[in-house]
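User: structure tokens for DUF1934 domain-containing protein, please.
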Amino acid sequence: MEKIPAKIRIHTRQTLEDGTTHTFTSSHSGFLYQKQTALYLIYQEQGQDESDRIQTTWKLETAQASLIRQGATELRAFFKKGAGDSTTLVTPHGHLPVQFETFRLEQNLSPEGGQLRIGYIMDMAGSVSRMEVEMHVNTDI
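Assistant: Done. Predicted tokens:
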């Protein structure tokens, strides 16, 4: 299980119930590695405060993806096109129920890099958003 250094660029578009759209772009250094039939992508995100760190791990399989966030906030989520998932976002301010309905899961990712696209409807404590996430992973660094 060789960890391959990777640069990850994430572009997220969030559309709120009232039609308002927000876009976010972030870049991270991380690692990509193969373990049995799954591909793992691991990187650090920064929380709301400068000292808050969140380790993000994606486990990518043929037709599904799992997300684990650990640190200042914690979340475990499962994505599969046409499927839903109910989970809890744990923050320093409390626990929030979160539901996901995945409408897109496309991946063209290998140990050499590639991209991942996930689209889902997110209901976080009654606030509903349409989320579209595109990740580009480059191991040519």
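User: Anything notable?

Assistant: The two ends are 19 Å apart (CA to CA).
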